[in-house]
Structures are given as C-alpha cells and as structure tokens.
Amino acid sequence: MKQKTILRLTTAALLASMVGAFAACGDSASDQPLPGGGAETAAPSDTVAEETTADTLLHDGVGDRDFGGKEFRIRTIENINVHNAIDCEEQTGDTYNDALYLRNRAIEDRFNTKIVETIAPDNGGESKIILAGEDAFETTSVRCPAALTMWEDGLLIPINTIPNIDLSQPYWSQSLNDSISLAHKQYVAIGSFDMNVYDLTYCLLFNKKMAGDYNLGDLYGFVNDGKFTMDKMSELMQVVLMDVNGDNVMDGNDQWGYLGHTKQVLPDFWIAAGEKSIMKDENDLPYNNMASERFHSVFVKTFEIMYDTGVYYSKCPMDADVGTEAIRLFSSNQSLFMDVSLFHIGMLRDMEADFGILPYPKYNEEQNGYYSRVSYYWCCIVPMTNTDLDFTGAMLEALNCESANSVVPAYYEIALKGKYSRDNDSEQMLQLIADNRIVDIGDTTMCDKIRDGFMASLFSGNKRDKLESKLASVEKNLQKYIDKIPEA
C-alpha cells in the first residue's frame, strides 16, 4: 500500500504542472459534414485549468483488483512516424518518458500485475500468430486497414463487447470512434492510450522569418477572424515564390510556398474543408462521397492552388511522411508553409528561424470552422486467442483513463507546447487543432485504395480531370467491405 501511495502522489505532482484540457481527447467535431459548410462542431472552449489536482482527475469504474501478478502482454510495432512504445525502463527527466513510466507503474501496483511490452516489426505478423491459435498477447497494436480485415476474418473481438470497457467515458474518443465504426459495430476504438492518433494529426507550419520579411500580416489573426481560407493561403504563398539563383529552374535551391508529401496534400485540404472521401449512411455503412459537387470543387481547387500557381515543390524528395529534405528546406527559410504531423514538429526543435503552427485553411469564409486531419491510426485489438477478457478489459480501461490524466497532458501541454511551439498563439492553434480532429475512412481504413492509391497518383501526376474515371473501382471495393461486415 505504501508503494501505491508514492506512485499516485508522484503522478499527481507531475500533473500539478500540466493543463488538463485534453483529458477527453479534445474531440468536438461530429462525424458527418454539413452540406456546403463543413463538419458541424462546437466552438473550441476555454478548457485550460489553472491547476490539475486529484479532484479533477478522471476515474474509471474498474475499481481496485488483484490479478495475482498476472502479466498484461501487449504487442506494439515499430514505426518512424509515431510514438508507438508504451513503456520505458526508468525515469529520465523527460516529461513524456516519465509520464509513461509512472502511468504503468501505478497501474501495475493498483492491480498487482506486470505490463510486458513486445516491440515487433511493422510487417503485419500479428494475424499469423492469431491464426496459429497461439495465446501470445492480451492485445496488440495494428494498422487500421489490418484491423478491419482481422475483424472480417474473425480474428478479433469487438472492443465494445469486452468486459469492463465503457466507451462512453471521456477518455475514449466518442467522435472519432463514431467515425470508424461500421454497421453500428465498434470493432476497434480510439482512446487516450492511443498516442499515435495525436502524432498523426496534421497541421501547417509557417516560417515566421519569411512571413515577417514579406510583410504577410498576422497569420494567427487570419485564423482567429475566420479569414484563413484556401484563397488566402494561395495569396500568401505566391508572394514568397522566388527563383533565388536566377537560373530559370525551380528546384531545391529556390524559395517555395508549400512543402508536403504528394499522398498527404489532397486529404489535408479536403478534410480541412469539412469533406470526407467516404461518408456513412443511416445504417452506418460507407458510401462514396467523392462524386459530390462540393468534394469535387475542393479537389480541383487544391490542384489550382498547388500546380497552377507553381507554389508547390512537387519534386521534393520524400523519405518519410514528412521528408528529411522538406525539413531542411523549411529550416533554411526556403518555404513559407510545410505540411507536418504533430509528431514531426519535434524534429524542428533546433531550428534557428522561428516557426508558427496553424490549422489547414477553410474552403471559404462561410465554412463553419477549422478541421484537422488524423491521417491514420494504430489501435489496440483484442485477439480471438485471448483467454481472460475480464483482465484485458480492466487493464485497457484503466490504461486509457490513466493516460488521459497524465500521458496526454505530458505529451501535449509540456512536451509539445513547451519544447516545440515557440509562442502563445501557436499553443492556442494546437488546442484548436486537437479540438476539431476528423477521421475519414477513405484516408485511413481504405488508404491503400483511395489516399495512397489513385488519389496520390492523380495528385503527383497533376491529373485533376481523371477523378471521375477512377471512382468506379471505389464502388466495388466499398461493396466488398459491406458484404464482409460480420453479422451482429
């Protein structure tokens, strides 16, 4: 009992210096966009608390249980674009690292259990383990397309059927989970334990030196006044476009308006406009939204801004979702804007020139609000080989609750805001971004067929007139998903 008291007090001391704004994952945006106006969302609330105390912490309904030293085996996967590890060996003084450590030790002490993490290659090997009937882990982290396939193949247990899990609690993201359910079945769920969902939230960085040198005005003010639109962003980028060395060839030696991976650009803008490539009907079944008039308008406008003005460095080498060369150019004051995930903001912590953080622009000023894209997600699935669902549910529920209380604030309020963002305005923008995150099935679960499939090809080849001819294949793929959805 003494050890438990020490752990809880240590965690509370850590939290006392944090802001509790994101305990509920900060999700206020609804699943379906409004016609012509983007997704309906409440105005971001001023949720910043002056002090986080034991009285303001979230609590799960699991209670104190004694699992007799049982191991909670969780399999995670390596990936260079996210924080996937869920444990660490010791405290190091790093806020995020220490929050992970303290969370896990507190959970272990509370339940008399041991968290055992296995970090595996990102090669989809979890299905083979389950098919072999091996009881190798209580839960494993899998890519979102793989999770759907595993459910359709009968390899996982839907998360909402697991004992002790209450998806209505604020440490589970209701809005994001509504977006990823199918046929009203929550086969997977996103909660505060899934830090990769924060990592894979996208935003814009702007180079403050360039903005100042070119007298571009108050970019934060444009956002706050509802005037940061696609047209406004285009106007700003064209001002800074320059053939620096005068050789009449625009390349890595010159100055650009925008840097971004070709597969990311289109979904960044259509989601910011409040659109989705795949919507869901009254039966919670997916349908193609890419033939709609408004989606097509956003699609074409993105090409016009990026290609017709010449502001986009389309040939910038990309060795990752946010490429090394793009980071170098942005850090060298050679681009006004750069597409970036929250995870990759940390790679610019040593950049000498100041940068600011903005949401992606609205389609027009009439749009209801700003929306931010979650480009992908890894989620914890419970395999059919699991032999103790009561234990697994208790652990997942408690880990999500404790993550909301300590790990999310550590990541967002201190590690991200304190170390990486460089002004108070950027901190406010980060809250706006987190409060209005959107998941599009076509950008995530169906990414291989839509985003990374024909959409990336159309954009990289500047083939804006080929969308209609590509959509026929989407209907066939969607129907395959619908036909394979397990019965209730």
Write the layout of secondary structure elements.
Layout: H1 2-15, E1 29-34, E2 38-41, E3 70-77, H2 95-111, E4 113-120, H3 126-131, E5 139-143, H4 144-152, E6 156-157, H5 174-180, H6 196-199, E7 202-207, H7 208-213, H8 219-224, H9 230-240, E8 256-259, H10 262-272, E9 278-280, E10 286-288, H11 293-308, H12 324-331, E11 335-341, H13 342-345, E12 355-358, E13 372-373, E14 378-383, H14 389-419, H15 424-435, E15 437-438, H16 450-460, H17 467-484
Parallel strand pairs: 3-4, 3-5, 8-11, 13-15
Antiparallel strand pairs: 1-2, 5-14, 6-14, 7-11, 7-12, 9-10
Helix pairs in contact: 1-2, 1-14, 2-14, 10-11, 10-16
Short description:
The protein is of the alpha/beta class. It has helices at residues 2-15, 95-111, 126-131, 144-152, 174-180, 196-199, 208-213, 219-224, 230-240, 262-272, 293-308, 324-331, 342-345, 389-419, 424-435, 450-460, 467-484; strands at 29-34, 38-41, 70-77, 113-120, 139-143, 156-157, 202-207, 256-259, 278-280, 286-288, 335-341, 355-358, 372-373, 378-383, 437-438. The chain has two domains: 2-14 and 31-43 and 53-199 and 379-422, D-Maltodextrin-Binding Protein, domain 2, CATH 3.40.190.10; 202-374 and 438-484, 3-Layer(aba) Sandwich (D-Maltodextrin-Binding Protein, domain 2), CATH 3.40.190.10.
